[in-house]
Structure prediction request, 424 residues.
Amino acid sequence: VAQRGKVRTRAVEAVGSVADGASIVVGGFGDRGIPYALLDALCDSGAKGLTVVSINAGAGRSGVARLISERRVERLVCSFPRTAGSVAFEEAWRERRIALELLPMGTLVARLQAAASGLAAVYSPVGAGTALAEGRETREFDGRAHVLETALRPDLALLRADRGDEYGNLGYRGTDRNLNPIAARAARRAVAQVDHLTPEPLAPETVETPGVYVERLVSFASEFAS
Amino acid sequence: MIGAARRLAADLPSGALVNLGRGLPTLVADVLPEDRGVVLQSENGLIGLARLASDADPDPTVTDASKRPVGLRPGAALMDLAASFDMIRSGRIDIAVLGAFEVSIAGDLANHVSNDPEFPPAVGGAMDLAAGARAVWVLMRHADKDGRPKMRERLDLPVTARGVVRRVYTDKATFWIEPEGVRQVWPVHGRRSGVDHE
Prediction:
C-alpha cells in the first residue's frame, strides 16, 4: 500500500498548485514545528483569498505572518493570534482586512480530529455560555451544556517533521509534534517539510504520521527559517 | 509577582498534575522545588516540564506554551495537541494555573478579551482548561494599569468561563472563592461576602 517516490527537491514542487480560496492548515505552535519553506512556496505560488487554520498567526514577516503581510489570507481560524511579534496579524486586524474565527485551542484541534475520524461533528463542553458559543446549537449531556462543533477538513496541510522517508512516513522531535500529526490526518492532502530525509525507511514502530497521509515531502536543514 | 508565585507553589498538593498557563503562571515553575512531587503539564504537548538550570544547554525543540526552552524531568512524556487537549478536557489535570484580566467574586474568569479594542483577542487553551481542569487557580496582578483591582463584584469583560476559579493569588493577597463567599487567607483577614480594596 505504501508508495515510494514522494520526495521532491524544491518546496514549490512539493506544495503543487493551490487554488485561490483554498483552506490550509499549518502545523506549529509558537515558533516550533512550523513549515517555513512550504509557507514561502505557497506565498510564491501567488494563491490568494486563503483560509488559514493555525494555532498562532506567525511573528515578524515569516511563515503565516508573511502570508498575512502579502494579503493572501482572507480568513484566519486561530486560537492565539496575538503573540510577541505578531505585527502582521495586528496590522491586518486593525485595518479590518482579515476575518478572524477565534477558537479555544482544544476546540480547533477537536474539529480537525473530527474530520480525521470521519465524524461530522462533536459535542464539547468548552466555551458553552460564552460569546464564542453564541447562536450555536447547544445540548445538555449529564446536566452540562455542550456546544456542537463541526468537523474542519482543510484542503491542504503543510507539515514540519524532524525526519521522513521516501514513503512519506514522518517522525517528530521534542514539542514540535504539536498540530502536525492531526493536521496530516484531517486535511484532504498533506505535504511535509522534513529536517532529515532518511535513506532507509523509518522503523515502523517509530512512524508517527504514516506515509499514506503524506502526498509529497521536501528536505530542508533545520537551520532554515523564513 | 514572585512572592505570589511562591505562595501559590507552596499550596500545590504533592502528586498533583498541574498545567501552567501562558505569561505570569510560568513563574510558578521557576519557584517550585523539584522535590515537591508536583508534575507540570504544558498544553503544547509535554508532561514533566522542568525549569532549565541557568547554565544548561537547552534543546531548542523542547519548549513550554510561552515558547521558552524547558527541560524534561525523568519520566517525562511528549505528545501532540490532540492528546494534550484530550487530557485537558477529560479531567486529568488537577489544577490549571491561569492568568486573568478580571476575576469575579463568584469565580467567573475573564482572560481572553481585553478592554482595548485595538488589541485583538486570543484565547489559547484557557477555555479548555477552565472547562476541563478539576480546579482553576489564578495568578494575576492585584490591580490593572489604572490602579483598579482586577477582582470585581461582576466581570466587565467577556467571560471566558463561569464559576470556575477557586483561588486567586495576587501581589497583595491570596483569596479562596468558596460557596459561602470570598475568604482572604493571606494576609489573614477572615471571611466576607465581597472584597475590600485598600
